[in-house]
């Protein structure tokens, strides 16, 4: 396996009285796309939010690029080079697209070449650059959410269900953008329910159930083994 950029060892996270993560062990190889799969409610989002520090792991260790980030605050983790795309988008509706993007550039002024690339993969952002983010369509808001994480080159991207609820044309745009990000050598941990997207983008896969990783391996192995899919998740990827 490639050198892991992210390693979770025995990570347990509680939310109020609920024990969500029950001891997650996960390696995310450097320069690859790792799909985090599983049924709803098994802990995928909690895993991402524990890595970025929004929800604090109370047990276990999270190593990023060789450094222990388990107890670090979210802003410090982000400045180390992790971009996060939350499921709920979290855009600032009363700010313009430009202002949303500017705030996301934590290292300084927005790089013009990087911005031009983002405009090429998400053309509506250029069209509505001076418009308020709250006036965008659902698909355009998702583009903005992903573009904010990509405005600077990050070492690792945590992306939570980027195609959820989107029309097929918008899903194609999202997949193309993520494919280009992957081609740049990015390391990505991606939660995705659209298995066609998972098959197309994933190098590796990890399947969660009941707050634990129950299987990890090559995405192509999971994508071509219907028996394995049904045993792990109770469904067939070919039907998705």
Automatic annotation (TrEMBL):
PROSITE patterns: ABC_TRANSPORTER_1 (PS00211), ABC_TRANSPORTER_2 (PS50893). It holds the Pfam family ABC_tran. One of its GO terms (biological process) is L-amino acid transport. Transmembrane segments: none annotated. GO terms for molecular function: ATP binding; ATP hydrolysis activity; branched-chain amino acid transmembrane transporter activity. Keywords: Amino-acid transport, ATP-binding, Nucleotide-binding, Transport. Residues 6-235 form the ABC transporter domain. The keyword Nucleotide-binding applies. The keyword Transport applies. It comes from the Bacteria. Gene3D superfamilies: P-loop containing nucleotide triphosphate hydrolases (3.40.50.300). Belongs to the ABC transporter superfamily. PANTHER family: ABC TRANSPORTER ATP-BINDING PROTEIN, HIGH-AFFINITY BRANCHED-CHAIN AMINO ACID TRANSPORT ATP-BINDING PROTEIN LIVF. This is Amino acid/amide ABC transporter ATP-binding protein 2, HAAT family. The lineage of its organism: Bacteria, Pseudomonadati, Pseudomonadota, Alphaproteobacteria, Rhodobacterales.
């Amino acid at each position: 396996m490639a050198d892991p950029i992210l390693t979770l060892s025995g990570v347990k996270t509680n939310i109020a009285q609920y024990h969500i993560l029950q001891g997650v062990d996960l390696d995310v190889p450097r320069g690859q796309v790792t799909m985090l799969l599983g049924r709803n409610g098994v802990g995928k989002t909690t895993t991402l939010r524990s890595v970025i520090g929004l929800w604090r792991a109370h047990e276990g260790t999270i190593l990023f690029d060789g450094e222990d980030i388990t107890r670090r605050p979210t802003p410090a983790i982000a400045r180390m080079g992790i971009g996060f795309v939350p499921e709920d988008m979290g855009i600032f509706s009363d700010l313009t697209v430009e202002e949303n993007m500017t705030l996301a550039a934590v290292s300084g002024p927005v790089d013009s070449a990087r911005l031009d690339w983002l405009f090429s993969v998400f053309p509506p952002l250029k069209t509505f650059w001076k418009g308020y983010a709250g006036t965008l369509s659902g698909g355009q808001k998702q583009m903005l959410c992903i573009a904010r994480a990509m405005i600077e080159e990050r070492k690792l991207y945590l992306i939570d269900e980027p195609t959820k609820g989107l029309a097929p044309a918008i899903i194609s745009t999202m997949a193309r953008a993520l494919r280009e990000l992957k081609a740049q050598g990015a390391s990505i941990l991606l939660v995705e329910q659209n298995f066609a997207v998972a098959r197309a983008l994933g190098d590796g896969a990890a399947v969660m159930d009941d707050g634990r990783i129950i299987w990890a391996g090559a995405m192509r192995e999971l994508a071509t083994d219907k028996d394995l899919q049904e045993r792990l998740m109770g469904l067939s990827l070919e039907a998705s």
